């Protein structure tokens, strides 16, 4: 009987820890947490799940970047794969990025995300761009 | 006499020599050939019919006139008409079924770095982007019907899309079923007048980084949201109608980081939020009608220096909502139908101030689920108590001279 309370606490803790995951974006309905625009473009959409499990959705990686300034550590950051190869969103801190105005993202951030350098290669070469990482984002 | 005859001869000849040829073309010949042969100033008459021709490039200043709306079909694969010469006029043709691509913005009619081009009386049906202007100046887009059916399509483009352009006139078009009806990005000194923009997935009209523009006498109905004006300066919004924008992220006007603008003589009826303002400064909101909206206005605490005067607020669930206690905006001479004050000297101005933010609008801002108690007996008591002694509602947000009679606007 004495074991119940710690066990229960542990269980709730684990459950809440597991529960933190990407929540699918309802395109055309959900609004961007930063700029308030309706999220329409799958290629540039992004999401933050903070340490309490609260979900913030974004229509542009620039909006996500601007929002991270207001957050404490421990949040999960997701970005969509521009190339659309992986249906699952990418970890924003591990993804690679390009930056060029011809991408025309909703908030003119123009930062498409890719799973790795190989996925970005073709576009990177054709536009002659530098590969960016999460740390080097403008 | 000979001299006069010579002069007369030249007077007659010269205009004939300069006058443009009229070229006729039909579905059996390629329009591209006719365009390549044409001299500047020529007129090309396009016979009625179904043209399976695409990526037609106009490189000379000609007038292209369709007879009974000849149809140019992109067969869901291609772009249709690309204009890359100045002084081109396009009238009375139908372009339909452009391709869809995530890499290229497929357009029905594309104006590419040109000036003084007119597109009028055309039908643009089922296209990704209807009319696409890039780097163009002094262009007129008028009396067109731009229709698509992108009800839930994510790859959808905009009806009229303008990018890095200047001095455009977008007038009397009917636009529906696109992502944004009209989209302006880095566009300056332009006017949008008398358009009807309905049933677009995102916005009826959308400004991004576009300064010194104006839109007037337009109708926005049944879009995801009416108009979004973002990161722009000096935008004049006069005489428009905003209606039937319902939903979580739906507004009549969404203002985000706007300054030095004017919102005058507009009608906001049946919207979730009439005007939503965030980070917006020095905006003059006057002589508007707010009728039967969820919230007439939501003014976030990040706004300052705005003046809201001589408006009518009627039948709104909430007149005003805000998310802070600080209020650096001026509210005066508005008519509020929820005002219960008195006017002893009968000068038409109420003697006690009106607080447009109700307790419930504050509570639902903090705890959305409290809306379940809205219009219950309990809330009425709280409302009355709060009116006598304001404690929750921001005291600075008040209209010191509320009108007791509705403005005739």
Automatic annotation (TrEMBL), chain A:
Keyword terms: Signal
InterPro entries tied to this protein: N2O_reductase_NosL
Domain of life: Bacteria
Residues spanning the signal sequence: 1-17
Name by which UniProt lists this protein: Nitrous oxide reductase accessory protein NosL
Automatic annotation (TrEMBL), chain B:
Keywords attached to this entry: Repeat, Signal, Ubl conjugation pathway
Boundaries of every Carbohydrate-binding/sugar hydrolysis domain copy: 46-185, 192-352
Pathway recorded for this protein: Protein modification; protein ubiquitination
Any matching Pfam family: NosD
Signal peptide positions on this chain: 1-20
Keyword Signal found: yes
Matches recorded under PANTHER family: F-BOX ONLY PROTEIN (PTHR22990), F-BOX ONLY PROTEIN 10 (PTHR22990:SF15)
Protein name: Nitrous oxide reductase family maturation protein NosD
Species of provenance: Chitinophaga pollutisoli
